[in-house]
Amino acid sequence: MQFFSLLKDSKQVLWGISFGGHIPFANHAEDLMAPASTQKLITAITALARLPGGGDFRFQNSFKGVTASSDTILTGPEFEVSGDPTWGHKYYDNDNLLLRTDKIAAELKARGITKVVGEVKFTHLNSYLDKVSRVELELDGTWKKEWRTECYASLPTHITLAGNCATYVVTGKNSGRWIDPGVNLPVSVSVARVRKGIAVGGVPTLDDRGFATAYRVSGKTTRYPVSIEVPVQGNETWLKNLLALSLKKAGIEYKEKDADPTRDVSAVTPFAPIDVSSPPLREILIPFVQRSLNGIGDRLFLEIAGQANSLDRPSLPELQTMEELTGDHTLIASQSASPLTYSNPSLSDPTQSNAVVIVDGSGLSTPNRMKPGLMWKLLESVKPQNGADRVPYFKDFFASLSIAAKEGTLANATLHNLLRHPLTSGKIFGKTGTVNGVKNVVGYFQKPDQTLEAFVFYTKFRALSNSRVAHMTDSVLIEFARQNSGLEGFQNPVTTLKKPARKSAALSKPRH
Question: Which of 126, 273, 404, 503 would you call most buried, defined as having the most Cβ atoms within 10 angstroms of its Cβ?
Fold first, then answer.
């Protein structure tokens, strides 16, 4: 315990610590601190607890139409869509935008369809997204307006393809091309070539709903080609184009208008829908937590709120879940005055309030605040006790966590090289969180008897680098593992918390 007591006097880092185990310890455990991406664990737990079906929940999508009983022509093609954030995403669809439309085309061909006729229609299964997607939405406090023009953090839409993000390659001063299939957004290019390169950038032209209708690329570069990621929202046209490409590849003709007006279409029957829904929630959560996918977290946050009819207070389901699990029934009452918005001066500086603050599902927003002690209680409340599960979804939650030196952000060999220590490698399961001046890690240590000990280490710092503080948190985790492994000994923090040795330039860039 001497090790952790010395952290109280640290002049460089404010430590928010809470853990139990062999020798319980807390430091600033009731302070409000920025959770950063550890907020994703609250989102994951709430999603498993509240979305229909828990780990079996899927974002529903399907394709359907009508056809005569003996006909090989499908008419009235229609998509039912739900704002599925996994469609075309590299961690869910193998970075293949055509994966699901190829499945549709293959199924149509297997059922004998040779031609699809009619303009593709869309049915929106989640009507609340109409409200969310408008420029004048009531949730401006949850998403900054400028995020509408960024990839992977943009507002959710009824059709989300590749995280509302496409790649444009600038091939010359006034030329370029999309490398993603199906994108036909007009682009104007004006890029100067210079001796010392400055990365090119782009600005979208938005319509009255905030969707990109054209793009302007400008800047300077030392070389061609150069790739930029471009936000593309309101993707009905993009999905239509993908379907047309898949149908053509499968040898199925597609016409928006029927070229044979004499054909009898009076006796038609519904065509059994082709399911192209998302993976189940338990599979969605693994990359979401391990790879820290902000867009997935924010979409889950809104799906939970939308299904609970609490869009006016989107954090309410998460607060309710935490109250139920931890027994702290002050969370909702402390925020009852008004919704959480950036424009609310009482919450713009959460340090002036005793309220836990949740404004998104990713932890990306700077007003988010969490108490280390409350996060520890939450982790403790869902873990098994005496060999029995306390919540039915713990296995799905636990499977989503990063594993020290093995999987996810805790396997980053540059930032968390010390976690390859035998005491922690494969035995720390958790989530990191990084924003400016914050480097957090929370989760569980698996003890020699296979039981789990929860821990929360939050930090706040100014003059140090992320890598330096990551080295410190690794050292703290090693000592925590030592104390909970029944081992004697003590590592001197003067040597343990020193600056890590310089790494080779060949090492990959750290991923936060």
Answer: 404
Strands (E), 138-278: 165-172, 175-178, 187-193, 201-206, 212-221, 226-231, 253-255, 269-275
End-to-end CA distance of the chain: 30
Residue 9 has pLDDT above 70, yes or no: yes
Assign 276 a pLDDT band (cuts: 50, 70, 90).
Answer: very high
Q: Tell me which H or E stretch contains 121.
A: strand 121-124
What distance in Å separates the CA atoms of residue 444 and residue 376, rounded to the nearest whole number? 10
Report, in angstroms and rounded to the nearest whole number, the Rg of the chain calculated over CA atoms.
Answer: 25
The pLDDT tens digits of the residues spanning 162-213 come to 988 899 999 999 999 999 999 988 999 999 988 787 788 888 887 766 677 8
Q: Which of 346, 207, 323, 290 is nearest to 511 (CA)?
A: 290
Alpha-carbon distances of 414 from 320, 471, 494, 503, rounded to whole Å = 38, 10, 21, 8
Query: Which residue ranges does the chain devote to CATH 3.50.80.20?
Result: 59-127+234-278
Where are the domain boundaries for CATH 3.40.710.10 in the chain? 2-56+281-496
Contact 399, 407 (CB under 8 A): no
Rounded Cα–Cα distance for residues 444 and 435 (Å): 22
Could you tell me which of 27, 23, 5, 15 has the C-alpha nearest to residue 484?
23
CATH of domain 59-127+234-278: 3.50.80.20
Instruction: Give the residue among 131, 86, 149, 88 at the shortest CA–CA distance from 302.
Output: 131
Measured in whole angstroms, the distance separating CA 250 from the mean position of its chain's CA atoms is 33
- H-type alpha helices, 427-484: 466-483
In CATH, what number does 2-56+281-496 get? 3.40.710.10
